Amino acid sequence: MLACLPDGEIERFIDEDLPYGDLTTHLLGIGHQPGAITFSTREDTTLCCCEEAGRVLEKCGCSISILVPSGTRCDPGTIFLNAQGTAQALHAGWKVALNLLEYASGIATRTARIVRAAREANPGIVVVTTRKSFPGTKKVAIKAIMAGGALPHRLGLSETVLVFKQHTAFLGGLDGFLKEVADLRARAPENRIIVEAENAEEALRIAGAGVDVVQVDKLEPAELRQLASDVHTMDRAVRISAAGGINEGNVAQYAASGVDIIVLSSVYFGKPADIGVRIVPSVA
Question: What is the Cα 148 distance to its own chain's centre?
Fold first, then answer.
């Protein structure tokens, strides 16, 4: 089961939308009337943040009767979340729950399509996503990409060793850094060493220095195919990751090139999922 956001995050989302109560429901005098809310898909959707949407509704005073877990792929017209409560409770949780569901499920759905396309071209490929999610949304974004079948490339600067030219500039350039690889490995024996190359020539030099992963940015699939073959011939233990400009339209070409890992950011940006909501009074 995918991890759920903590209560503090859920309460913050509610407070953003409902800081002083629901003026419309109050003035209409309907808040005490019982009713139900139903969420359903309008398109092929990989769901995400269903659990959080359910907890939003519960914290607003509703009770849940249907809740399909995050990561489930649903056909159009699937009812996946249903709750009962007073009109006050239903309206308090409605938009917060919907916003979470649409944005997270949009990311999850794009991710799932990309993962399927990549694995059809290369069943052994791993798809990972960068840390370029919008600030403040990382927990939702990470849950969404995992619901879609991808993994995070790195959650932040604290747990991975990923060396860019912006680092090697302080070490006398790439050659200066490559002399330090053995020492770096000795100082961080539990961490894989990932180094980005700007071209195929650099990638081969980096692979020969004993790193774990060579990340190549913005190389075309045809050039990557030859590079992946050369690196794997040199040392099959070294992995090749392709990054830069990879999206749903070209991911199959990159996956078919023979690289081991696809790194992308494109899943974070796009249309939210189209989810329908129906709120009705209870029948006496």
Answer: 7
